[in-house]
Amino acid sequence: MTAERDDDGRLRELASGLDRTRARIEAACEVAGRDRADVHLIVVTKTWPTSDVLALAELGVADVGENKAGELRAKRDECAATAPSTSLTWHFIGQIQSNKAREIARCADVVHAVDRPKLLAGLSRGAQERIDAGASARLACLVQVSLDPQPSPGRGGATPEQALALADQIAGTEGLALRGVMGVAPLGGDPREAFTTLREIADRVAATHPGADWMSAGMSGDLEQAVAAGATHLRVGSAVLGSRPPLG
Ligand SMILES: *Cc1c(COP(=O)(O)O)cnc(C)c1O
After folding, report:
1. Helices marked H in 147-247 — which ranges?
2. For the segment 223-242, what is each residue's pLDDT rounded down to a tens digit?
3. Ligand 1 within 6 A of 235 CB?
4. Dist CA 42 CA 53 (whole Å)
5. Is the CB of 217 under 6 A from ligand 1?
6. DSSP element (H, E) containing 216
7. How far is the CA of 218 from the centre of ligand 1 (A)?
8. Most-buried pick from 15, 25, 78, 216 (CB within 10 A)?
9. Mutate which of 20, 25, 44, 104 for ligand 1 pocket (most atoms within 8 A of beta carbon)
């Protein structure tokens, strides 16, 4: 029972999870009549070790998602230290506490859940620090739109009206680049309907902001519905990595 053999087993497990997920995306694109190249897979590695992130990179994954600033930073630093040639785009997909906005902006490449104006000052400051430290581009931001029938604390998201105004504000904030919208299907609801609503808001945002044409939607359980509604970025965790260990 060497560590090496365990690593091999995990690599095979990840490879098959990835194959299955890629096959689902391909099939969903075919059904929807969409070009596979327009749908990007972000593998959500939250709670899993850095060794999994490196294995995924070896298997051709280019985008990973995390939902805690400290965890993202630690894994990113560890990847840079142990495999400096690994090139990954790091997506922050979690809810953003305003006192963490600056830190998140400093360590992520894309921030998905921007849902209130109060976050922009911290994000802007962190994004500019990143640029000062040598980052070549402004920080990509998505507006999180709430797709829940009733707003509930902890789920985040702006109302559709707030989302359009927030998109304008992000586009006008130094250091930030508006890229589009993000949404999470309601718990227990029909994801199809929610993603169709998100698509409408995505189109309205893109109409005023050319280039802000991303729609981040779809997880392990509903990626087919998201692809059908026009998602450009899927955030998939458990279908690739297995069920997450319970959070401590
Ligand atoms: C954890 C998480 C995901 C991935 O969920 P799975 O069901 O494991 O695919 C996607 N989006 C967000 C915002 C998440 O927090």
Report:
1. 160-171, 191-208, 223-229, 238-241
2. 999 999 999 999 999 999 99
3. yes
4. 12
5. no
6. strand 214-216
7. 8
8. 216
9. 44
- Using the atom order of ligand 1, give the atom closest to the CA of residue 244: 8
> What is the rounded average pLDDT of the residues 61-73?
97
Assessment of whether the complete model's pTM goes beyond 0.90:
yes
How would residue 4 be classed by pLDDT, with cut points 50, 70 and 90?
low
The CA distance from 235 to 35, in Å, is 18
| Averaged pLDDT score across all residues of the chain | 94
- Domains of the chain listed by start with CATH number: 8-241 (3.20.20.10)
**DSSP string for 124-165:** HHHHHHHHHTT--SPEEEEEEBP--SS--TTT--B-HHHHHH
Nearest CA to ligand 1 atom 10: 235
Distance 234 CA to ligand 1 centre (A): 9
CA atoms of 66 and 89, how far apart (whole Å)? 11
